[in-house]
Amino acid sequence: MEELSRPTFPKTALGPNPDTAAVIGAAERINGVMAFTVRSSGPWAAANDTCSLDFRESQTNSGSHVTRNLEKLSTHLGIDAHGIVTCRQIHSDRIVVANGPSESVPSADAVITERPGIYPAVKTADCLPILILEPAKGIAAAVHAGRRGTVLRITRKVLTFMKKRYGCEPSDMIVALGPAIGACCYELDERVLTPLRQAIPHAERFIVAGSQDRSRKEGQTPSYRLDLTAVNRYELEAEGVPDKNIHELKLCTSCNPQLFFSYRRDGIHSGRQLSLAGFRP
Ligand SMILES: [Zn+2]
Fold first, then answer.
1. d(CA 208, CA 248)
2. Which of 27, 140, 210, 280 has CA 20 to 30 A from 100's CA?
3. How far is Cα 186 from Cα 207, in angstroms, rounded to an integer?
4. How far is the CA of 263 from the centre of ligand 1 (A)?
5. pTM of structure
6. 182 CA to centre of ligand 1 in angstroms
7. pLDDT in tens, 125-181
8. Is the dihedral angle over the CA atoms 9, 77, 280, 128 positive or is it negative?
9. Residue ranges of domains in the chain, CATH in brackets
10. How far is the CA of 20 from the centre of ligand 1 (A)?
């Protein structure tokens, strides 16, 4: 079991030449797949295609580039693109179970499957994507955990759901925490942090003082910075996921413009990364 519980993340995917590949986290020894994309698809990119792995659909585009990019990614991973299931993300704590290719797109922020060949996926720009594989029961999940979802404790709720519905053991779970805005860049004011402090025990340990000097100069109230990944890691460990089973990319979306889209950095037209997990059929 020890052997099964350690997926490997190829270090070369984030080496000196980040354009060479998507950030692929493999869970191959358990016949699983975990993947986080980067914004440029490198060798897959067309010559005139500078943001070739954008998974954002909007009112101003047809979404056909998303279909194309899902095909590129699935080809790279050796999976069927039709098995990738996303949802309409609404910063909620809503969980959907998907056991077939989704024709309608439900509103939710976590997708769970019990079916090999179905790959739950979430789209993010700064929010934290969390991928979970439970090889003993064959359950896979993808979670979109932004600040609001974290306040709603979506991560804990997903684990509770997996335990109750499928009898999953957190000690069997393998979790990957993907690219998200880091404590280096995620500045928030007191008002926004109050609900987090109310919702999460020990929230204070994940909040650090922000740019005090600038705040003073501009006469604003002091700001704070939040370590979103650490909060969610805390939630996972509190539910019983072993530290050794949790893998973090430790890359800030805002600090790495060559690698990642960032809503805070790029604004409302920011693209989206895709993160997916599942078991091969
Ligand atoms: Zn940063």
1. 20
2. 27
3. 10
4. 12
5. 0.87
6. 5
7. 999 999 999 999 999 999 999 999 999 999 999 999 999 999 999 999 999 999 999
8. positive
9. 11-180+235-279 (3.60.140.10), 187-226 (no CATH)
10. 22
CA dist., res. 110 & res. 83, Å (int)? 16
Span from the CA of 155 to the centroid of ligand 1 (angstroms): 22
User: Nearest 5°: CA angle at 40, between 38 and 46?
Assistant: 150
> CA–CA separation, 238 vs 241, rounded Å?
7
Tens of pLDDT along 117-130?
999 999 999 999 99
Q: Count the Cβ atoms, other than its own, within 10 Å of residue 100.
A: 12
Give the CA radius of gyration of the chain.
Answer: 18
Strands of 40-185 (E only): list them.
84-85, 95-97, 110-113, 119-124, 128-134, 139-145, 174-177
* CA–centroid distance, residue 273 to ligand 1 (Å): 16
- From the CA of 185, how far away is ligand 1's center (Å)? 4
